[in-house]
Structures are given as C-alpha cells and as structure tokens.
Amino acid sequence: MQIEFKGVTHTYQEGSPFQSTAIRDVNFTVSSGEFLALIGHTGSGKSTLAQHINGLLRPTSGQVLIDGEDIHSSGYSKKTLRQKVGLVFQYPEHQLFEETVEKDIGFGPRNLGLSEDEILERVQEALRKVGLAYDEFREKSPFELSGGQMRRVAMAGVLAMRPEVLVLDEPAAGLDPMSREDMLQLIRSLHESGTTIIMISHSMDDVARFATRVLVMKKGTVAMDGTPADIFLHADQLEEMGLDVPVICRMNNDLRRLGLPLPEGIYEEDALFTALMQLWKGGENHAS
Amino acid sequence: MLRDMTLGQYYPVKSPVHSLDPRVKILLLIAAIVAVFMAGNMLAFLPAAVYIFFACRLSNVPFNMLLKGIKPLRFIIIFTVVLNIFFLPGEKVWLDLGFAKITQEAVMTAILYALRLVLLVMFSSLLTLTTAPVTLTDGLERLLSPLSKIGFPAHEMAMMMTIALRFIPTLLEEADKIMKAQSARGADFESGNLMARAKAMVPLLVPLFVSAFRRAGDLAMAMEARCYHGGKGRTRLHVLKMHKNDWLAILSMAVLIACVILIGRL
Fold first, then answer.
1. Could you give the CA distance from residue A36 to residue A43 in angstroms, rounded to a whole number?
2. Do A64 and A39 share a structural domain?
C-alpha cells in the first residue's frame, strides 16, 4: 500500500480572522514497510499532516492518494480507509469510554460491522500484541488502570482494526521510562511484522533507533526528507530549526571538533563504538 | 470539524467600540433593549436600526457577522410571526380561514414583533462581538458588586463565568480531538436516525466529561496553590475607568431613546 501526498495544503478556519495555514504544499510518498519518523518543532504541522493520512482532515488544496486513488473522491469508502490506516492520537487514553476493556477495544471492529466471533478474536489478538492478559483485563474498567496500561488498551483499540499503516502521534509522550521502552518495542515489533509505521516524535534518540526514513517539517513545509543517516549529517541545520540530534550524533560531532578523525554523521551507538575502536587500533599500529 | 464553530464569537479587531468600558456597553445594551421595547410603531424602529448600523460600522465588524447572529433564532422568529398572524384579533379582515382570521392589525403586529426580535439579537450580538468574554464578565462583576453587600456572590459568579468561558475553546478542541480519534476507529457521527446519532455521542461524551472533571480538579488545585481565596481584599490588574468615548456612547444612547419616544408620540 502506497500513500502519496500531492501538493497538500491545509488552512484552518479559512476566511475567518482566525485563519492559519498549518501545512503548505506538502509532497511525499510512503511505501509499504517503511518506518517513517515525522519530526519538527511544535506547530510545524506534523499533527495536521498525520490527520490527512486517514482522511480526518480534508486538504484545502492538493490530494492525498492511497494506491493511486484520491481518498476524497466520492467513490472512496471512508470505512475501508479508516480500517487500512490506524491513527493513534497523542494521549490516546483520553478517548477510552466503555465500561470494560473488552468493549472498548471491540468498538472499532464493531463499527466495521464484524461478527461477534471475529470481534472477540480481534480483541484477544490486540490485547496479546500490547502485552496485556485477556482474562485478567477483559472485565476491568479502563478507568481503573494505570497510565501505561490505559495507553496500551487505547493502542489495542486501534490495532483491533488490523491496520496496514499505523500513524502514531508521540506514542511515548508522558510515559515512565519502562512503559516508554515497552511502547517503542511494541511499535518495533509491529513494524517487523509488516505494518507500515508513521511516527511523530520529539525524541531524536527514538528516531535514530527505529526509523528507516525521516521527514523534517518546518513551518508547515517539508524541510528535509531522507534516511536517518542523511538527516543527522546536517546536525547544524536541525539545531537551527530548534531540533535536537541524537546523543550519539552530538557526541560524535563533539569528538570531531576535538580533532578526532571520525567520519561525519554517525548516529548509532554501535557505529560510533566501531569507529572509535578502529581509530584506537589504528593509533596503536601507528605507534608500534 | 467543531473547531469551525464560532462560539463566544468575539471578533478581534481594534475599534472605538471595542475599547469602550464593558460596564458602559452592558448598560447601553440594557438601554437599547428598553428602547426597542418602547418603540410602539414601525417608524420608531428606524432610529434604532440606524443606530445599530452606524455602531456596527464604527466597530469594524462586518455587518453580515451581525446578521449571522440572527440565523440560529430564525425558527423562533418565524414561529412568533406565524402565531401572531393567525391568532391576534383585529378588525380589518384580509382572509378568513374559518378557524382563524388574518387581519391587518395582526400582520402589522407580527412584523413589529419580528423586527423587535431581530433588533434585540443584533444589539446583543454587537456586544459579544466587540467585547472579549473575560472583559465582559469583568464588567458584569463590577456592575453587580454593589449587590454583594446584601449577600449576592458577585465575585464568585464572575469567576465561574470567566472560567466557563475560558474553557469553552479548550473543551471544543478536546471534543474535536476525541471525535477524530473515535472516527479513526470507524465511529460514525453523521448518519443514522436520531436514536442512532444520540447513541453515537456516548463515545464522545464520556471521555469529554472525564477530561472536564480532571481539568476542573487540576484548576482548583492550581488556583489554591496560588493562594486564591475568593473575592475579599482582591485588587485588580486592569482597573476600569470611564473615558471620553464612554460618555459619548452614553450620550448617543440618550439621543436614541429620545428619538424613539418622540417618534412613538407622533
């Protein structure tokens, strides 16, 4: 499945004194199996962009195409679209509403008009994926869970739709370090099992660890688009936009500034380690 | 979706009308309402209409923003007009339907009532369009503060209104977000009959109430942390003062009322 943005512009409250353009002339294509990280300063239009992917927002101009079809053309089924593209909002636990965890997760599949057997199967599968035991949690009220558990239940509610593409708006925000790592590992495993991931993140370390491609937004436009290696090569540009670079990347740059002949653009722990080892050994050889 | 709603409908531009003292504007609105009710014939509405037109021009608010305020009330207006036309007694019968008569007097009265309603709405819209909600409650508090001597909780009322108004956009945004989140799970808010639609609101309303209560708790805590203890002995940052324009506005309203009374006598 391929998602294509063609000159997408979105203006909120057009024609009123409050009008503001959140994204302007955005073009990019995402193919199956990618792990795309969407980064940018607050207010750079990341969330607006994300909401265009499953048609929650309609572009003021331009087109969003899925497998070449305009999702806003009259023949395109919104229901199919919402099933194919799952969207996990920021703080998704704020949308829980049912009496029990089981019913809440079943909300999506029920809206798709599936049979009760199928719904049950999907609820069980979704709970398993997020690492919660079905028998223990099915009858619990979502409001009596811990923050991390609530987040996982909300996530399961989206996974129960069995989306091919999962869009996540800062999925790890506000979680404690352990829940955070669990959440990221969950997303990684979803990606490995074939789901296309589009993740908004403020943590460059997470981006460096997981993404296969990075899209940098700046004031509503796409400022950079490339692999993490390409993007983190331009640490200075990122910092100009008020963005961070991964810790390893910063460390590498600091070491280079101190005069160590390290290659540019290293952003992974292993890569830096290997490079330093080589340098060290090389130095030893030199000395002997 | 919901974000496009114009609620509170303050129109943020700079104008002499915007910068009037909110107390003056509230009192002027009351005076205008009295004037509109005093107007006993069609002609007496003319000064009021001229007044609202020029006030609107002066406020830099587009005139159709003012007209938009009438739209939600169109059914009430149509309803009163229809009731009046059919059921008011009169002498000059234009049409006899058997169960009801349409008379000239009834038609005239109906038009009068409709005009009165339209003008009332326009005057009140002008107040809300040109006054930020918080300023408005501030003015209200000052106007009601003499009543606190007899135990009326003027400050508490104003604080509650300010908080309520402050949270309208926040809750709208929240509602919008939850609605989108549920739509992303295939929820359908737009189709189906009345029952289906009412049921579809549950996934929106439950999280909205949960978050409203959470916010209320947080806010109470934050206010207490900053030593809020009610209105007693509280001073204010913006002290309201009357300026030249405020007196001019009062004068213009006096002229309007005089005109309405004079024309009514003719």
1. 19
2. yes
HSE value, Cβ hemisphere, 13 Å, CA-based, for A11:
11
| Contact by Cβ (8 Å): A55, A78 | yes
Q: Are residues A60 and A191 in the same domain?
A: yes
C-alpha B103/C-alpha B165 separation (Å) is: 46
Q: Domain residues for A107?
A: 3-245
- Whole-number pLDDT of residue B4: 42
A45 & A166 share domain: yes
Same domain, A112 and A47: yes
Residues A143 and A263 in one domain: no
B171, B185, B210, B211, best to mutate vs chain A, most A CBs in 10 Å: B185
Collapse the DSSP code of B29 into the 3-class scheme (helix H, G, I; strand E, B; otherwise coil) and give the result.
helix
To the nearest whole percent, how much of chain B has pLDDT over 70?
A: 97
Q: Which residues of A touch B206 (CB under 8 A)?
A: 97
d(CA B116, CA B257): 15
Domain co-membership, A178 together with A236: yes
Q: Beta partners for A26?
A: A8
Instruction: Kindly provide the ipTM of the predicted complex, given to two decimals.
Output: 0.84
pLDDT grade, residue B264 (50/70/90)?
A: confident
pTM: predicted TM-score of the whole model, two decimal places = 0.76
What is the DSSP secondary-structure string of A199-225?
A: EE-S-HHHHHHH-SEEEEEETTEEEEE
Q: Is the same domain home to A215 and A263?
A: no
Q: Which residues of B touch A86 (CB under 8 A)?
A: 184
Hunting for tokens 């809300």 — which residue is that?
B128
How many Å apart are CA A44 and CA B193, to the nearest integer?
40
